[in-house]
Amino acid sequence: MRKATASDGISGIGVLDKAVTVLQAVAAQPCNLAELCAATGLPRATAHRLAVGLECHHLIARDTAGRWLPGPALRELAGPHADEIPDAALAILPRLHEITGESVQIYRRDGAERICVAAVEPPSGLRDTVPVGSRLPMTAGSAAKVLLAWAPDGVRAPLLDNSVFAERTLADVRKKGWAQSVAERAAGVASVSVPVRDADGEVVAAISVSGPIERIGRRPGARWAADLLAAATALQERLAHTPD
């Protein structure tokens, strides 16, 4: 019988292989315990024990619905190879939060989803909480519009088939340079987003402000697009001066 090798994706160390299976499942999609068991094929007690252990080491974390998703330790372990945007955002998002008083986030596209890679939340009161690592659809919300507006045609067209917005909306986003949404991703929530570009001018992320409609109104773009554009410019300047 042939021994398992690293090329098989199996180390032969049972608990390690099972833990990696849990990480892979959570990375693919946020999971509650039942979903984690279904995705991994692990018994309920085993899946729970491994997930809690990984959570203790911050390799996975929980969102507001109690689902497991990738944790901050994964980025920290990547060290110098980590995404530069979250680190640069630490100098930008707090000021944007101070100006708006609302939740602020940065999203990057990953296939058919967008991932929150940085966020600052109000300490209390009504808020639109999106934990870092959360995966949201590319079919609704202002950040999705921004990320799709400048995405390649081969990416944009299939996702538009299931989106709440159409190509003409994205054309308007490209014209204005920002997008807004009202109760698209979640009832009672509005947001406004602008693109973040790399040194070559390519859109690599979206920076957003979101909050309850009753507080920020139905025209968040008119209220905060200019502040977001200034924050995006500041972030781009920091990224341009980040050492390779």
From TrEMBL:
Residue intervals of the HTH iclR-type domain: 13-72
Keyword annotations of the record: DNA-binding, Transcription, Transcription regulation
Keyword Membrane: no
Position of the signal peptide: none
Gene3D superfamilies cross-referenced by the UniProt entry: 3.30.450.40, Winged helix-like DNA-binding domain superfamily/Winged helix DNA-binding domain (1.10.10.10)
Record-linked InterPro entries: GAF-like_dom_sf, HTH_MetabolicPath_Reg, Tscrpt_reg_IclR_C, Tscrpt_reg_IclR_N, WH-like_DNA-bd_sf, WH_DNA-bd_sf
Residue span(s) of domain IclR-ED: 73-241
Pfam family membership, one: HTH_IclR
UniProt-listed PANTHER family: HELIX-TURN-HELIX TRANSCRIPTIONAL REGULATOR, ICLR FAMILY (PTHR30136), TRANSCRIPTIONAL REGULATORY PROTEIN (PTHR30136:SF39)
Name assigned to this protein: IclR family transcriptional regulator
UniProt source species: Gordonia defluvii
